[in-house]
Amino acid sequence: MLKLPPPIWALLILILTAGASYMARWPIVPWAHSLSVGIGLIAISFIAPVWALILFRRAGTQINSTSATNNKLVTDGPFRFTRNPMYLGLVLLSLGVAVATGAILMFVAPILVFAIANWVHVPFEEAKMRRQFGPAFDAYARNVRRWL
């Protein structure tokens, strides 16, 4: 699971839940279905990840979450509010798709994306950052929440 880039596994989850929804004939949750809210969430989901990507490029550090090392600990921009703006974007994107479709099985996608990020990828990355940046990362982690 760590070898696949996070956007790829998030896309695979969306494809699998869409396939399951299709096979189940797209049962809709009426109170959770809103195309405009879903599209809004999808649009918002790109803000923090793109901002983080720009900051990583400017800092000259690795974007690949499975890289062996990182050149710099980035703590500004969206990283002032969340330690994981890119994963937060993936969760919001999958939630936006679920709300836009309204299909009950699509709401499994954001839960799975969150669970895999929170219990597989983030612990791996945080251990890597602790090894590399020690007290600087610990201080950052004490002051900035993992999610929001």
Automatic annotation (TrEMBL):
Keywords: Membrane, Methyltransferase, Transferase, Transmembrane, Transmembrane helix. It is a multi-pass membrane protein. GO terms for molecular function: methyltransferase activity. It is found in: Endomembrane system. The chain crosses the membrane at residues 33-56, 87-120. One of its GO terms (cellular component) is endomembrane system. GO terms for biological process: methylation. Its main location: membrane. Signal peptide: none annotated. This is Isoprenylcysteine carboxylmethyltransferase family protein.
